[in-house]
């Protein structure tokens, strides 16, 4: 089920997207600490500098972003992702969502899982 062309996502849909993206990050909270960069909440290795973050969720006007730094330095993490998820990638380290189905959420879970061990070791990839 998708948003019709030209029709913005509802606040209810965006709130659900934000909640689901935050839930994807939840398993990493025991290994990572909260940080911020440019006012954006992030999760990072304990003691990491502000620019060395792992991921964060950011609500914006009409969409929600998943900021995921490891894919910037290690684009091979994206090998094999679906065209649907690739279309959501709007920057070097950003996915942008107006809706999020469970297939995309499962792909994101896998992507973060592939990256976390390498990130914790200091190279930001899995």
Briefly characterize the structure.
This protein is of the alpha+beta class and 126 residues long. The chain has four helices and six strands, in the order αββββααββα. The chain is globular.
What does this structure look like?
By secondary structure, this protein is of the alpha+beta class. The chain has one domain: Aspartate Aminotransferase, domain 1, CATH 3.90.1150. The protein is built from 4 helices and 6 strands. It has a 6-stranded antiparallel beta sheet with strand order 1-2-3-4-6-5. A hairpin with a 2-residue loop joins strand 3 and strand 4 (63-68). The model is unreliable at 1-5 (pLDDT under 50).
Counting DSSP E segments of at least 2 residues, the number of strands comes to 6
Strand order of the largest sheet: 1-2-3-4-6-5
Which CATH architecture would you pick? Answer: Alpha-Beta Complex
Work out the count of structural domains.
1
Beta content = 15-25%
Overall mean pLDDT score?
A: 91
Helical content stands at 25-40%
Number of helices, where a helix is a run of at least 4 consecutive DSSP H or I residues: 4
Distance between the termini: 32 Å
Please mark out the parts with pLDDT under 50 across 5 or more consecutive residues, or reply none. 1-5
By helix and strand content, what is the structural category?
alpha+beta
The largest pleated sheet is described as: 6 strands, antiparallel
CATH topology: Aspartate Aminotransferase, domain 1
The shape, in one word, is globular
């Amino acid at each position: 089920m998708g948003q019709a062309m030209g029709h913005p996502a509802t606040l209810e849909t965006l709130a659900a997207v934000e909640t689901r993206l935050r839930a994807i990050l939840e398993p990493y909270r025991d290994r990572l600490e909260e940080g911020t960069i440019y006012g954006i909440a992030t999760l990072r290795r304990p003691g990491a500098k502000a620019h060395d973050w792992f991921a964060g969720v950011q609500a914006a006007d009409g969409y929600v972003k998943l900021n995921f730094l490891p894919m910037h330095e290690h684009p091979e993490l994206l090998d094999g992702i679906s065209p649907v998820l690739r279309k959501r990638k709007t920057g070097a380290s950003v996915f942008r969502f107006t809706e999020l189905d469970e297939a995309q959420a499962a792909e994101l879970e896998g992507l973060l899982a592939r990256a976390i061990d390498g990130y914790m070791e200091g190279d930001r990839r899995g």
